Amino acid sequence: MTLKQLEAFYWAATCRNFAVAANRLSISVSSLSKRIAELEASLGAALFNRTARSASLTPLGEHLLPHARELLRGADQFMQQAGTQLSYSGRCRFGVGELTSLTWMPSLIEAIQQAHPDLVVEPFAGVGQLVEDALEEGELDFAIIAGPSSRPTVASSRIGQAEFTWVAAPRALGKRRAARPAHLADMTLVTLPHSSGVIHILDEWLTTHRIAPGRSMACNSWGAVAGIIRHGLGVGFLPSAWAQVLCARGELVPLPEFPPLDPLQYTFQRRRDDTRPMLDSMRDLAARLIDFHAPTCLL
Hints:
WH-like_DNA-bd_sf; DNA-binding; LysR family transcriptional regulator; transcription cis-regulatory region binding
């Protein structure tokens, strides 16, 4: 029995399918299957029930899975004790929300590549819920999204926050000299869809101030939301750094009568059963570099 065989068994059992597990280990599906078969041969028993389309754990596989987890965790602890100046290799897949991808993600990628030049970085940007789904299914090594996660299989560490400012284009205000929250009953609120983490702070704001917008327009892209607001098709909020730039240009105006939204907390998320030291290194880099005031090409 080898550590690579245990890794193949564990990730094949806990990822969505063998292909995801193989990608996570940076090997082919055939190599993954071979390692599992070698482990089964050494045990003299099958760990998976295989069909043409899927594979499920046998009773023995179910019984041995937590023991494999503990052995792999012990190996991770061994590597941590070996020293902190480790250079990692293989592939590192991580997911972020769109706002992170448009601001400080390039700095994070650069820092990872400098610290671990043999590590191939593969970022994925999407709505928070989709990113978290991919993390839980084993397709990603870690995620940086609004949190914390409510999923029992995902651990969250707070690393920073994003702030937002209410804005509108002058034409959206019509003859009003100043817009107040109550005016939302006669206006269109432009925002992200319910699968976005930012909706949590919006719902709290609406509830606290007892506001019901007359109409909402949801779009799954911050860039598109900014464009819709700039065109005067509704009011909404943007990352504060973006709002400052657009207001300075005269394309938008702030809405000082609108009480500010609470900051949106961002977390570094990982599967609880993934104790690799590499993830501690990634979390520390992310906590140091998080910056939603970083410039974006959209403005």
